[in-house]
Amino acid sequence: MEVTLKRGASTGKMLFPLFYFLIFFAFGALFPLLSVYLQEEVGLSGTEIGAIMSISPVTMIFIQPLWGMITDYTRKPVFILTVALLATALIGFAYSFAEDYRWLIVIAALLASVQSAIVPISDSIALHYVQQDGGSYGSIRLWGSIGFAAAVFIGGWLSDHFVFVVIFYLFSFMLIVAAFLAWRLPKQSQAVNAGTLRGVRQLLAIPRFLLLMLATFLIFGPILANNSYFGIFIKQLVGTLTGIGLAFLLAAGSEAPFMKMTDGLIRRFGMIPLFIFAAAVSGLRWLLYFWEPPLVFVYVTTVVQGLSVGLSIPVALQYVRDIAPKHVRATAVSLYSAVGNGLGTWFCTFIGGYILDHYHIGAVYLFFSICTFLGILALVGIHILNKKNRSAGEEG
Question: N or C: which end of the chain has fewer CB within 10 A?
């Protein structure tokens, strides 16, 4: 869908990195520490924590298309994004007052409903901006990783030295600032298609797309579910809240340089081989955590997240757009987000909570490892199809 950007390229180059830093700072301040908060401050069980933490991804599957239709109807993606940011900030602040499990479920569902609009609409606006004015999505998205890393460390330190509910205050404040900044993002004369279902049938007829959906379900599910359980893992290894923040700082902070390098590595090795390598690193990391190694060793291994996640996110997003027909690319990105970030995360988070209740945290990471290596098999299938297409004179 063709759109017209109303602001100059130089304005976007300054605004997008800061905007991504703010929204992911908000996410980093809350979500990695939320499971620990629910366990230690509210006293919930592993199954209850898993249920609450899995609400967000499963809600995304059903609510995200509605945000897309609203965006298409109003033709004001920046306005919709601003409203979603402010609503998410308000509900996040209300989260800090809830202690009853039933109310926590309700608030978590409401929070997920409005939050699910933020990243898809932001990515759609940013991707179109990059296409129109040049640049790299990875160079923009890396600021989100930096913000996330800084937030977990700051949030962990503040929670250790003051009160745990400070994570909700940081979350809300940063989203309010991001909402004011969002209003200055490049305006568009038509809607960004953030989640409609047009073209789904055509996409589902593409074997490589189906395999990619399976791969993202199995690979990104554990990566994002790790944000819910990594804090508990560190605590069981006798870590502190500040230590949790440090671990996430090392992990998320190491993503930025690899995101910056993605374009060059794709040209050298190809997208799917690079994705396979990054996923294999993730799978080995989860397998090592099954043995619950010493805490110092865990801190050392967190930096490999930069390689695994920092490469996987931009590679997968670019490959989705490359294999989808031009007129259904927005729908393809929406499905990719719903399956990998939504359904896969819900599945791994929910099953992880059950495993945590009946076994131990190491078993959760064994489950993550098995899922990841199964996902690699789907990527190998794509690689084989690419080779067949090239041999038949088609582009892979």
Answer: N
pLDDT of residue 8: 46
pLDDT digits (tens, 9 = 90+) for 6-15: 444 555 677 8
Cβ proximity of 332 and 321 under 8 Å: yes
Count of domains for the chain: 1
Domain of 211: which CATH number? 1.20.1250.20
- Domain that includes residue 171, residue range: 9-391
Cα distances (angstroms) measured from residue 79 to each of 4, 6, 89, 183, 268: 16, 14, 16, 7, 40
Encoding tokens for residue 98?
A: 């809830």
pLDDT digits (tens, 9 = 90+) for 350-389: 899 889 888 889 999 999 999 999 999 999 999 999 888 7
- Asked if the structure places residue 217 within a domain, the reply is yes
Q: In terms of residues, how long is the chain?
A: 396
Q: For residue 361, tell me if it sits in a domain.
A: yes
- Which pairs with CB-CB distance under 8 Å and at least 24 residues apart come from 225-228? 225/53, 225/345, 225/348, 225/349, 225/352, 225/368, 226/286, 226/368, 227/31, 227/32, 228/31, 228/32, 228/34, 228/35, 228/49, 228/50, 228/53, 228/349, 228/352
pTM above 0.85?
A: no
User: How high is the pLDDT of residue 127?
Assistant: 75
Residue type, 276: I
Other Cβ atoms less than 10 A from the Cβ of 100: the count is 9
Domain membership of residue 2 (yes or no) is no
Contact by Cβ (8 Å): 141, 151: no
